[in-house]
């Protein structure tokens, strides 16, 4: 993706010099930057270690590998796929100095997908709004979240799992120590993520290991109801039981046996056992990274009680059954127990073509606007997120073929209304990162969410402040 681009700025990190690439005329980018040592061999299922320094200038021209996962998801990202995935990408305005930093935590539950998408790394999106953007890859599925009694015994703290979350902490530590060289302010970092990425942000807010590494947090469609263990942290014993199941299926009697199994065989075993269940892995209460369930962490006082922005899309209730109930349950709890300000939204917009055939704001729709990348509608269609059928898409290019990428893109009828809303959404998120208030002066004043008023922002055309969060969805 970046091999043909012109060489860009060289910066000095504490591990060595990095040469980036030019993205257009206004942004420098650095891809595939290692923030931890490759978690291979004996380092599989251990907390991340700092990367090895290098002597010569290192080219950061192309993406590193996506995290090891079901190979069916590889085409949705760029770069290879392996366990050697602890890399991040940085995009910064060329004149950046002390700019707010936004660290993106990608979706896909805790099991799949990657930060290596053109969508997430669009130089014409958030970097154009005056922020330094960092997108992070980390260990997923069994490599990021496997717990096992033998691993707990080995760890030195009596727990195991949560390695993927510790990877994110290592990435945030890397940002703290190095981002100033790229024009970012290490004291003004916002973590933000969607779906599983939003859940990762919530989890980091509750972890004592992440305290002080970020100033604000955003969760997009990442809350689930307390009755669902997925994304809310299971207890260690339940997580270890899944690890025992895996080791038995693989015939591995020791950690050495487990660490010797090729990653593809581990993924294949889990795929067959869980039928690619995206809830098979996630954080657990290990007494080290995580001390409580999400809800109890809020009640007991978050380790990082920071300004918080959260929301969901209008039909997340339909596409991901627990997301809207989770939002409606968790926000009053946060308003009652958190000191920092809270902001809530309901995203309700789709382009005119899809609205005309009955489409509604599905799980992930806001990403197209936040990252200013309309071709992602195609990806969402093939991921089965849109809720639209072949018959609804139709044959807008008139070539009589079955539905293809051109048909899907044309059918949206993306236009000036969408471009204007994308600009507003990017401003809302960037303003929150800059000063903790997402309002756009002269356009919309977004009030805080409180138990008394339950104000939220309806993101549609036009933007509108409404009251009574429970009425905003469906």
What would you note in describing this structure?
By secondary structure, this protein is of the alpha/beta class. The chain has a domain at 7-306: Rossmann fold, CATH 3.40.50. Helix content is 31%, strand content 18%. It is built from 16 helices and 17 strands. The strands form 3 sheets. Strands 1, 2, 3, 4, 7, 8, 9, 10, 11, 14, 15, 16 and 17 form a 13-stranded mixed β-sheet that branches. A two-stranded parallel ribbon has the order 5-6. Strands 12-13 form a two-stranded parallel ribbon. Helix 4 links the parallel strand 10 (184-194) and strand 11 (216-220). The longest helix has 20 residues, at 416-435. The mean pLDDT is 94.
Features:
alpha/beta; 16 helices; two-stranded parallel ribbon; single chain; Rossmann fold; 31% helix; 13-stranded mixed sheet; 474 residues
Distance between the termini: 39 Å
Give the helix proportion (percent range): 25-40%
Which fold does the CATH topology of the domain at 7-306 refer to? Rossmann fold
CATH architecture annotation of the domain at 7-306: 3-Layer(aba) Sandwich
Radius of gyration: 21 Å
**Tally of contiguous helical segments:** 16
- Mean pLDDT rating: 94
């Amino acid at each position: 993706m970046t091999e043909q681009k012109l060489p860009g700025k060289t910066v000095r990190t504490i591990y060595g010099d990095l040469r980036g690439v030019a993205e257009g005329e206004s942004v420098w980018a650095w891809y595939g930057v290692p923030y931890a040592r490759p978690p291979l061999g004996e380092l599989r299922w251990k907390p991340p270690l700092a990367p090895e320094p290098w002597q010569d200038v290192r080219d950061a021209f192309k993406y590193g590998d996506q995290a090891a996962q079901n190979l069916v998801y590889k085409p949705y990202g760029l770069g290879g796929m392996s366990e050697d995935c602890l890399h991040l990408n940085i995009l910064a305005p060329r004149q950046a100095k002390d700019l707010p930093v936004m660290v993106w935590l990608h979706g896909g539950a805790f099991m799949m997908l990657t930060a290596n998408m053109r969508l997430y790394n669009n130089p014409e999106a958030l970097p154009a709004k005056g922020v330094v953007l960092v997108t992070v890859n980390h260990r997923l599925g069994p490599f990021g979240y496997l717990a096992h009694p033998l691993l707990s015994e080995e760890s030195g703290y009596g727990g195991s799992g949560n390695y993927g979350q510790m990877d994110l902490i290592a990435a945030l530590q890397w940002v703290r120590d190095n981002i100033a060289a790229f024009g970012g302010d290490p004291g003004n970092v916002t973590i933000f993520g969607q779906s599983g990425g939003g859940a990762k942000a919530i989890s980091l807010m509750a972890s004592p290991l992440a305290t002080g590494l970020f100033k604000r947090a955003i969760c997009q469609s990442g809350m689930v109801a307390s009755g669902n263990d997925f994304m809310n942290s299971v207890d260690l014993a339940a997580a270890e039981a899944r690890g025992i199941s895996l080791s038995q299926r693989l015939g591995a009697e020791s950690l050495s046996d487990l660490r010797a199994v090729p990653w593809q065989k581990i993924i294949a075993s889990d795929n067959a056992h869980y039928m690619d269940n995206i809830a098979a892995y996630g954080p657990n209460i290990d007494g080290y990274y995580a001390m409580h369930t999400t809800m109890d962490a809020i009640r007991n006082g978050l380790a990082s009680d920071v300004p918080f922005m959260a929301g969901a899309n209008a039909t997340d209730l339909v596409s991901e059954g627990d997301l809207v109930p989770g939002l409606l349950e968790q926000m009053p709890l946060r308003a009652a127990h958190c000191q920092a300000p809270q902001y809530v939204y309901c995203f309700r917009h789709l382009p005119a073509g899809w609205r005309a055939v009955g489409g509604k704001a599905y799980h992930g729709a806001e990403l197209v606007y936040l990252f200013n990348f309309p071709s992602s509608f195609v990806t969402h269609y093939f991921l089965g997120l849109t809720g639209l059928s072949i018959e609804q898409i139709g044959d807008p290019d008139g070539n009589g073929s079955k539905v293809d990428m051109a048909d899907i893109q044309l059918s949206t009828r993306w236009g000036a209304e969408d471009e204007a809303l994308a600009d507003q959404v990017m401003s809302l998120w960037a303003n929150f990162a800059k000063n903790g208030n997402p309002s756009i002066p002269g356009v919309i004043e977004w009030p805080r969410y409180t138990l008394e008023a339950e104000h939220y922002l309806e993101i549609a055309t036009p933007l509108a402040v409404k009251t009574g969060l429970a009425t905003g969805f469906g």
